[in-house]
């Protein structure tokens, strides 16, 4: 899809974004907000970091939905990812202090655990034709229960002990580029990975044979079947990919940018899996669009820090609700998205 | 799930619960605890003594009410995942009404009854209005109600916490709690001698079940609701405006959720507090409703079962060192299995235990 095509097909979306930007500018003028202080390299950096877990889950989720399975359990898989990343790190470190290697082991454990769990979810939804919405909600509830449960078994409380972050990586030369250099190439490697993944996901989905299979599995499974491709195998791959990425997103939250697993309330994932679903809907199932939308939510997530730095006093508990309000605004703005035709339908090959 | 017969639904519900409990026990054993002790403590905590039964019934009251709220929407083909938020907003409306009107009304039983009735009405209105929002968003902006209602849950908790913490917390209080309600605002404790459970609350829940059942099964409104859930074209043909129907469904569901909030506030709390610390009745209610195949009458046994699980789980939390969160996980497993009737059909066919094809 070229840029012009995209613009033509998404007039409402682009118009809505423009209206929102104008409204923000008007607000800034009326209240004389120090806009220059709000829009700094630091802002971009923080927004990108906050966007990373959302973007990972969103890119996975859109693959699953493109292939015909609505993985509404992203939130739950993120909880499992966050928990197993913290647990993996903690177990790898043993009694010693937590080193960088331990953190990477934690990430691998998180991906492994969430891949395994999504495989079970995929079997239930694809093989046993479970109601996708209800099963996805169940994944969330199971995460909300077993996440803090496992934490209590391991650490005696619903949260993990404080764990360090993965160190920033500085790419020589590229880090010298003004703005972009600092934001991307002198940052957490997970941020850079997510940006590259978004681009790769776009290329695979729209420019490779495998991407067409994924799209066909969700739009016209009969045709794909006739072409001799196993529809359910494509779906299994897409769903497992979505869970693995959601798990990685949770891991990023726990040990990439956060400092361990928090199991109180709705856990530290705190709705980011749901926000991820809205992010890819807003991005119209385009990985790059989903990444952009995640950035938008990442930025709203960081508003609190921004407001504090420029001295706007709004109570934290209210500013903390901005991402959720933003989700509602976006959902109402986007309205009808063209969902892949065969989403939610199980596919039986005629035997 | 809609294709299944009553017997099959019942069998699936039982099988799903047993399988979830079995898996829960396996997890308990795998984490190094005694699974037999776990199950026996679960049973004792639920039904072992009078006070345990009272606690079970208290949780059941809440789960039956919240479960009916979920069932109303699911029956009409709308996913109301926002029962928790509507429950929070409803209970908050009750608390504000009671605290605001208490000084103006006479003290004693008359004032108490009046306050409770007005507080409950406020909850029903507030719950309905809060649920109408996602209904309107779905009907007129095509926004997915699963996501809007979940976002509204977060928003309800955040905003209510802010108001309680900022404006309703008495000066010098350390916790974000409102003042206590006057002593005469409480249900009489009949049958069970419990400070947080009264048969009156259970009666309200059962009466609500009956009212909802009659509305759904015997009125034009209920008929339209259910047909548009199952057969949208047919409903549209018979003159039902699908958009208005979605809003009405959500509002009706939210009114029941608001009522649940009123019962929680009056019967259990007697004040109001930070909603993020409340039990997640609105989520467990989804399991209750699914187990009951979204039938308002079926919600009663399902609600009692989950009330027992909940009470048993909390008892375990006090006595054994098994974390009570385990029960939340088991509830999630029940939801997962109930969503997968095909799994049990296949198992039944394999083992030859009934299940004569589809």
Automatic annotation (TrEMBL), chain A:
The chain crosses the membrane at residues 12-35, 47-64, 76-97, 103-126, 133-155, 187-206, 236-261, 273-297, 309-331. PANTHER family: GUANOSINE ABC TRANSPORTER PERMEASE PROTEIN NUPQ (PTHR43370:SF1), SUGAR ABC TRANSPORTER INTEGRAL MEMBRANE PROTEIN-RELATED (PTHR43370). It comes from Halorussus gelatinilyticus. InterPro entries: ABC_transp_permease. It is found in: Cell membrane. This is ABC transporter permease. CDD domains: TM_PBP1_transp_TpRbsC_like (cd06580). GO terms for cellular component: plasma membrane. GO terms for molecular function: transmembrane transporter activity. It comes from the Archaea. Its main location: membrane. Keywords: Cell membrane, Membrane, Transmembrane, Transmembrane helix. It is a multi-pass membrane protein.
């Amino acid at each position: 899809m070229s840029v012009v095509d995209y613009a033509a097909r998404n007039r409402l979306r682009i118009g809505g974004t423009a209206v929102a930007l104008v409204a923000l500018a008007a607000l800034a003028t009326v209240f004389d907000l120090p806009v220059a202080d709000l829009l700094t390299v630091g802002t971009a950096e923080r927004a990108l970091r906050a966007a990373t877990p959302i973007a990972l889950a969103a890119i996975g989720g859109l693959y699953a939905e493109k292939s015909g399975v609505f993985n509404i359990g992203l939130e739950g898989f993120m909880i499992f990812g966050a928990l197993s990343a913290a647990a993996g790190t903690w177990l790898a470190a043993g009694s010693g202090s937590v080193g960088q290697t331990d953190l990477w082991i934690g990430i691998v454990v998180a991906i492994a655990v969430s891949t395994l769990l999504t495989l079970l979810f995929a079997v239930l939804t694809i093989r046993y034709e479970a109601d996708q919405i209800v099963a996805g909600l169940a994944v969330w509830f199971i995460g909300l229960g077993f996440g803090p449960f496992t934490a209590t078994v391991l650490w005696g409380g619903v949260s993990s002990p404080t764990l360090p972050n993965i160190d920033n990586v500085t790419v020589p030369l590229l880090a010298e580029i003004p703005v972009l250099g600092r934001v991307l190439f002198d940052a957490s490697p997970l941020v850079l990975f997510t940006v590259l993944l978004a681009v790769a996901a776009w290329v695979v989905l729209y420019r490779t044979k495998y991407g067409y299979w994924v799209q066909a599995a969700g739009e016209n499974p009969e045709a794909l079947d006739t072409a001799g491709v196993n529809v359910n195998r494509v779906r299994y791959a897409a769903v497992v990919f979505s869970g693995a990425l959601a798990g990685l997103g949770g891991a990023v939250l726990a040990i990439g940018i956060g400092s361990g697993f928090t199991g109180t309330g709705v856990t530290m994932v705190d709705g980011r899996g749901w926000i991820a679903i809205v992010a890819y809907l807003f991005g119209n199932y385009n990985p790059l669009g989903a990444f952009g939308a995640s950035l938008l939510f990442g930025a709203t997530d960081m508003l609190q820090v921004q407001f504090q730095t420029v001295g706007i006093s709004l109570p934290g508990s209210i500013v903390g609700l901005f991402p959720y309000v933003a989700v509602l605004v976006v959902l109402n703005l986007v309205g009808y998205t063209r969902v892949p035709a065969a989403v939610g339908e199980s596919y039986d090959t005629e035997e | 799930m809609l294709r299944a017969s009553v017997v099959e639904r019942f069998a699936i519900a039982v099988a799903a619960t047993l399988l979830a409990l079995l898996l829960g026990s396996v997890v308990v054993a795998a984490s190094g605890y005694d699974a037999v002790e776990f199950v026996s403590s679960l049973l004792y905590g639920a039904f072992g003594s009078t006070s345990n039964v009272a606690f079970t019934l208290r949780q059941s009251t809440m789960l039956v009410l919240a479960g009916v709220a979920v069932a109303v929407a699911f029956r009409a083909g709308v996913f109301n995942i926002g029962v928790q938020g509507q429950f929070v907003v409803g209970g908050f409306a009750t608390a504000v009404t009671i605290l605001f009107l208490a000084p103006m009304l006479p003290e004693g039983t008359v004032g108490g009854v009046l306050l409770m009735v007005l507080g409950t009405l406020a909850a029903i209105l507030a719950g309905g209005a809060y649920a109408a929002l996602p209904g309107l968003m779905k009907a007129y902006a095509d926004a997915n109600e699963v996501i809007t209602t979940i976002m509204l849950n977060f928003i309800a908790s955040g905003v209510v916490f802010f108001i309680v913490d900022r404006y309703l917390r008495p000066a010098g209080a350390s916790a974000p709690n409102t003042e206590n309600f006057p002593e005469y605002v409480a249900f009489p404790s009949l049958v069970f001698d419990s400070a947080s459970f009264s048969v009156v609350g259970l009666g309200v829940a059962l009466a609500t079940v009956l009212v909802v059942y009659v509305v759904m099964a015997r009125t034009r409104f209920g008929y339209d609701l259910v047909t548009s859930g199952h057969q949208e074209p047919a409903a549209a043909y018979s003159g039902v405006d699908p958009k208005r129907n979605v809003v009405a469904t959500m509002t009706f569901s939210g009114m029941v959720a608001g009522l649940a909030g009123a019962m929680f506030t009056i019967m259990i709390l007697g004040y109001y507090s930070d909603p993020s610390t409340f039990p997640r009745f609105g989520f467990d209610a989804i399991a209750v409703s699914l187990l009951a195949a979204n039938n308002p009458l079926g919600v009663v046994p399902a609600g009692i079962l989950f009330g027992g699980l909940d009470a048993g789980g909390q008892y375990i939390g006090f006595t054994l060192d098994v974390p009570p969160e385990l029960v939340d996980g088991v509830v999630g497993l029940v939801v997962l299995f109930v969503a997968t009737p095909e799994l049990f059909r296949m198992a039944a066919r394999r083992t030859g235990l009934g299940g004569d094809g589809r």
